[in-house]
Amino acid sequence: MLSLKDREWKPFSVIDIFDEVERGKRLKKNDHVEGKRPYVSSSAKNNGVDQFIGNTEKVRTFKNCLSLANSGSVGACFYEPFEFVASDHITHLQRAGTSQYIYLFMATTISRLSEKYDFNREINDYRISREKIMLPVTDLGEPDYQFMEEYMKALILKKRKQYQCYVEDKIARICGGGPMNYWMMWVELKILIGNLFLSYHYLQDWSQEKAKVLITYHNQVREYRISVQQIEIMVLFVM
Questions:
Q1: Which of 182 and 75 is assigned the larger pLDDT?
Q2: What is the dihedral of CA 76, 19, 13, 98, to 10 degrees?
Q3: What are phi and psi of 42, to 5 degrees?
Q4: Could you tell me the pLDDT band of residue 173, with boundaries at 50, 70 and 90?
């Protein structure tokens, strides 16, 4: 496993690292239209996804970038691989030719901004234009993007192996070593994969059904059936 401790680090201006630094657009709660597109705001959970909407006009959409919370959970930063609608409480950061692994590495570094900002001191456009982040550098003093990518690939592979063992153990415990042919309680599923991103939007189109699951979505309990294989895929996908 590559080490962060034996690397040289230097500060870089946010606006020098990213080609695009743009704030989202305000969309009043009453103007939200029900839909399936993620609406990213200033939450520190679930990649900042606050809800799902269908608005297509007077909104700003982005994809394959970082989202940085300006207010609320100030400093929370996530890699967003999917297309989303950005609220005015976040700033999107994008750099051409950047892989998901580099974005994931930089998201962790940028999240350190939460140490100097809070609810009463938000990250406005002026402050982000003057902000700097620490990155590992090459012998020439340039950001070492190759190291960032290799480090994150190795870390994700390590985590996947850990979770695969964890999932296999849980499946064996729940299924008793045989096929899953009985009802699974919600609490057991929550123990199995954690309260990650289960929602109506992710489960409604699944066709192979084996286990019944109670999912709480917007305070409404819905019933679904999902297979053990799909549960395992969900865990590995999240990592």
A1: 75
A2: 70
A3: -95, 35
A4: low
What are 153-156's contacts with CB under 8 Å, separation 24+?
153/101, 154/1, 154/2, 155/1, 156/101, 156/104, 156/239
| Residues 137 and 168 placed together within one structural domain of the fold | no
Cα dihedral 48, 113, 94, 157 sign: negative
Q: Is residue 169 in some structural domain?
A: yes
Mean of all residue pLDDT scores within the chain: 79
Within a domain: residue 150?
no
Determine contact, residues 55/33, Cβ cutoff 8 Å: yes
Report the range of poorest mean pLDDT among 54-68, 115-129, 183-197: 183-197
Domain count, the chain: 2
User: Would you say residue 152 lies in a domain?
Assistant: no
Q: Quote the domain boundaries for residue 221.
A: 158-238
The first and second tokens of residue 148, run together, are 């960032």
Strand ranges, E, within the chain: 9-13, 20-23, 34-40, 49-53, 61-62, 65-69, 77-80, 84-86, 90-94, 132-136, 211-217, 220-226
pLDDT tens for 41-78 read 998 988 999 999 999 999 999 999 999 999 989 999 99
Model-level pTM? 0.72
| Residue tagged 């009802």 (tokens) | 183
DSSP readout, 70-87? SSSSTT-EEEE-S-EEEP
pLDDT at 58: 93
